[in-house]
């Protein structure tokens, strides 16, 4: 269990955080959510040319990272749950840059140096406001994509410990 100090209106409080994040809400209560890190690899030797779904990232996910494991002529693509293309949709390859969608800022990188061994990547701080579908536009054999994100666990507010010191703030529901 981690210990954190929080200051509200010039008063210090000690908060014990069991593996989560500490936040101060508008109601000035301390709350946290615990997150589970989800990791995955997609690799297939041969596929048909075209779009192949490799992952679904759920609403609420944070710290999203999608990365080609080796530079290739394949492309990463993103689409909302309802089918709206965000990056590299409908056979149109977008320029690298910042895209605002599903409640967050998505950063799309595609190294253009001939000597670079880094593949494409997409990162986002989150949290996502809706599910995000990740695709690979397959054009070259041997693709590899690594993805990682944090997803909130359910029922993360534990019951208070007995004999709680009076200088510890009460828990409240997070609006996140």
UniProtKB/TrEMBL annotation:
Residues 38-152 form the ADAMTS/ADAMTS-like Spacer domain. It is found in: Secreted. It holds the Pfam family ADAMTS_spacer1. GO terms for molecular function: metalloendopeptidase activity. Its main location: secreted. Gene3D superfamilies: 2.60.120.830. GO terms for cellular component: extracellular matrix; extracellular region. GO terms for biological process: extracellular matrix organization; proteolysis. Keywords: Secreted. It comes from the Eukaryota. PANTHER family: ADAMTS A DISINTEGRIN AND METALLOPROTEASE WITH THROMBOSPONDIN MOTIFS PROTEASE, LONELY HEART, ISOFORM A. This is ADAMTS/ADAMTS-like Spacer 1 domain-containing protein. It comes from Seriola lalandi dorsalis.
